[in-house]
Design goal:
With 222 residues, the protein is an alpha/beta fold. Helix content is 36%, strand content 16%. Bound molecules: zinc ion. Zinc ion binds next to loops.
Length: 222
Amino acid sequence: MTDAHCHCRTGADRHFVCEPFGGEAGEGDARFLGVHPWAFLDGASPSDGWLERLRERLAADPSAGVGEIGLDRLKERNIPDAMRAAFRAQLALAAELRRPAVLHGAKCWGEVVKEVEDCSSGRAPAYIFHGFSRSAGLLPRIFALNGFVSVGPAVLNDHAVNYRELVKAIPADHLLAETDRTSPDEVGPGVGEIVAEIARLRGVAADALAAQLDANAALFLV
Ligand SMILES: [Zn+2]
């Protein structure tokens, strides 16, 4: 089983490990390098030269993707200019280097989709819209970008009625599952529990769904 978005290794067979938070990818995992939008909150920003350093690290690891990058309205209502500029720069880098990218868009998914569509450097080969939880109306635009939607622990919350309806509406060939764990000690469901709940909601067998999601994860990396 593949954990399509996390920041550390846990029980899955394969992990897509994104910076930051220090987790290391292991054998068979995929590694994603990038600067998270939270690094730009409250006027903070990474030290000068971060974009060039990122470029160098990506050049040194041709198998690495770009992530997690994006915009955020969860922590602060307004998106800082530096956050948006950093997202654009990293989208351009992913397109230029032809690396798949993992995207964050808490409470601003429409803007994230638009930024990807408008990226003047073109497109990365594929994108994961990690934890995407907005209306199904954006899905056709996400799929036109070769986007995959990864479903997180919120699917286990039976009060998340709209989210669970969305999870049913995502075509199986664009679906992934993720824990978004930042530490192995973090309390939360494993990817197996998340996949089992998605399967239950969709009325399909969990092992067949798991196989489909592994195949999707492999396609995302091609
Ligand atoms: Zn994350």
